[in-house]
Specification:
The chain contains 10 helices and 11 strands. The protein is an alpha/beta fold. The protein has one domain: Purple Acid Phosphatase, chain A, domain 2. A 6-stranded mixed sheet has the order 4-5-6-7-9-8, with helices on one face. Strands 3-2-1-10-11 form a 5-stranded mixed sheet, with no helix packed on it. α1 packs across α2 and α1 runs antiparallel to α9. The two termini are 52 Å apart.
Length: 389
């Protein structure tokens, strides 16, 4: 039998365990539901809300970028554990709460894909498939990035093919869903130097451009070149790629998740930070897109290109790259679209919660063992000393 003092100690210990467990469960599990629950699908331009009546006409798309799953060379096991848990919980919570039709990841899925051995690659793929698993009702589409296969000078047919095999991606692919045309671009291959991979990628894009142009021709004025061409929905396409189209810098970008002020004025290097001017003009001429979605910079930016074509640079989805990751929610129809950004829990706030809970835990422990002077008794001692004087 426990004594009265022993029972008190056990009761106090159980209370501490419950307190610590509650803080941990909230910070590592419930907080994702609390934050993402506040996000909702935007209304499509023209006032059509995303509801049960017109859900079949509106494509609900989640867009994220630059997950950078750490590899065997530079990735520390603790860093891997923390970052992958955060991304998995965020992604799975978003799927459960928002139930999108399709998810796009705009490249740099892996951090070391350009260096990975076959064994390391297989391990990275296994972890990715566990973290970003989707139900049957949600389609997952992954775009190729420079960290997945290397920059242009590191890119090889072997690396590209193993990526294509896992993610069913081709360097220039058309995806049509609910009458909406998406063009998936291998922006790493838009070097313009005539390399084998670059030439093949550009040829596929040219063919897609021709097919889209034929589909948009009026039936009363058909072209001979389009006579045997398979018709596509006559919808202006949306470009999805890793590199942003050419822009001088992020100087004009704004918002809490844009680049830090000290980085905004740094000029971008063509074919490294952004596509070259030539490659950007080619894509714009070929497809005349109504929207461009890109990643790579790890920061948010909204650019209006010539012809009032908007480009949205999607920030990194990993807390390793920023304190406030986010993803884009898009309600898209064949003629319109509406976008909304959903922020994930700020890591600084999670750390603040842990620190506050730790401080409270310390105070409770000190008070329980009477190692902390009660404030009232301390005040009484000060008053009594003052009177004695």
């Amino acid at each position: 039998m426990l004594s009265s003092a022993g029972k008190k100690q056990l009761c106090f210990l159980l209370k501490l365990v419950c307190f610590v467990s509650s803080v941990f469960i909230f910070c590592e599990f419930l907080i994702y539901y609390v934050v993402i629950f506040q996000c909702g699908w935007p209304e499509v331009k023209g006032g059509a809300p995303v509801d049960e009546e017109n859900s079949t006409a509106v494509l609900k798309a989640l867009v994220l970028a630059d997950t950078h799953l750490l590899g065997a060379i530079k990735g520390h096991w603790l860093d891997k554990l923390r970052r992958e848990w955060q991304m998995e919980r965020s992604f799975q919570t978003a799927l459960w709460l928002l139930q999108p039709d399709i998810v796009f990841i705009l490249g740099d899925v892996f951090d070391e894909g350009k260096w990975s051995s076959p064994q390391a690659w297989a391990d990275d793929v296994r972890r990715f498939q566990k973290m970003f698993r989707c139900p049957v009702s949600t389609e997952l589409v992954v775009i190729l990035g420079n960290h997945d296969v290397g920059f242009h000078y590191e890119m090889t047919p072997y690396k590209v093919k193993r990526f294509e095999k896992v993610f069913n991606f081709t360097s220039g692919k058309l995806l049509t869903r609910k009458g909406i045309n998406f063009i998936l671009v291998n922006s790493v291959a838009m070097e313009g130097d005539g390399c084998g991979l670059c030439h093949a990628s550009e040829q596929k894009l040219l063919e897609l451009s021709h097919q889209l142009n034929c589909s948009q021709q009026k039936p009363s004025h058909p072209s001979k070149r389009c006579s045997n061409m398979e018709k596509l929905p006559a919808s202006d396409p949306i470009l999805l790629q890793h590199y942003p189209l050419y822009r001088k810098s992020d100087a004009e970008c704004s918002g809490e998740d844009s680049a830090p002020p000290e980085e905004k004025s740094i000029p971008f290097k063509e074919k490294y930070d952004v596509l070259s001017q030539e490659a950007s003009q080619k894509l714009m001429w070929w497809f005349r897109p109504r929207l461009v979605l890109s990643g790579h910079t790890h920061s948010a930016c909204e650019v209006l290109h010539a012809g009032n074509i908007p480009e949205i640079s999607v920030p990194s989805f990993s807390w390793r790259n920023r304190n406030n990751p986010s993803f884009i929610m898009g309600s898209i129809t064949p003629t319109d679209f509406s976008l909304h950004k959903c922020f994930l829990p700020y890591e600084s706030r999670v750390l603040t919660l842990y620190c506050a809970a730790g401080a409270l835990l310390l105070l409770l422990t000190l008070a329980h063992f009477q190692l902390l002077t009660p404030p009232v008794w301390f005040a009484q001692r000060l008053i009594s000393k003052h009177k004695a004087v």
